[in-house]
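Cross-check.
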Amino acid sequence: MKVLNLQCAHGHGFEGWFASQDAFDAQLADGLVECPMCGDTAITKLLAAPRLNLGNARPPAEAAPAKPPAADSPEARWLRAVREVISRTEDVGERFVDEARKMHYGEAEERGIRGQATPEQARSLADEGIPVFSLPLPAALKETLQ
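Predicted model, tokenized:
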């Protein structure tokens, strides 16, 4: 098992577990390795020092405890905001454009919705005076939130 320190083009660092270096290289080439924060697939492997188990080595000095990510870091604030949006909206999926129009024209009850729309569809809704915004969600956040 290979545990690699990875980073996306936006500077988000994360850890990836792979069966081997070849498995990592194959998944990276196929675009299957993505940042859990932003979904970016432009991933680079960071340098890491291997851990060597030497039987006669002295025990390491007491290390300072690892600091958890700051609760007010940009990543933590973004994650909280996305979770808030998800908890307060209904996922209408591919029906997003139709549902947004129905609500705008009074054919459906107004409520918070989210779903998929192409850039052209979003522009069309905006041209009609229907406010929309893009919120890219990484695959990890599309699953059930814990």
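Strands lie at 2-8, 13-18, 43-45, 90-93, 113-115. Residues 74-87 form the longest helix (14 residues). Passed to J.P. for a second look.
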